[in-house]
Write a structure and sequence with these properties.
It contains five helices and no strands. By secondary structure, the chain is mainly α. The chain has one domain. Helix 1 packs across helix 4 and helix 2 packs across helix 4. The protein starts with a helix and ends with a helix. About 25% of the residues are buried.
Length: about 100
């Protein structure tokens, strides 16, 4: 999963151990496939529903999430952007993501 973080996460640092508290990464580990797009992807918050699926269950939301910061919001985590990318490509549906979340 480190490759998802490295490609998609603005908060990723090579010397930092990838933290398993990132809820989208926990979901990616449970996904029935692994797709790693080669092309670049620019985040454009098209899937607001991902917030309700991921952010509500993520341990970073309360204390360390720039994306949820209402005063100065930042980009979401790399796992969120990864899932937005594969949603845009039609490789997974929001309902499939929700079903995976129910297993965690």
């Amino acid at each position: 999963m480190k490759s998802i973080c490295r490609k998609y996460c603005n908060y990723y640092k090579d010397n930092k151990v990838v933290d398993s508290n990132c809820f989208p990464i926990l979901v990616a580990k449970k996904a029935p496939f692994y797709y790693f797009p080669l092309e670049d992807f620019k985040f454009s918050n098209n899937y607001e529903e991902l917030k309700s699926v991921f952010c509500e269950r993520c341990e970073y939301k309360e204390h360390d999430c720039d994306f949820q910061n209402s005063i100065n919001p930042g980009l979401p985590c790399g796992g969120y952007i990864y899932f937005q990318h594969i949603l845009c490509k039609g490789l997974i549906t929001i309902d499939e993501i929700k079903r995976i979340c129910e297993t965690i």
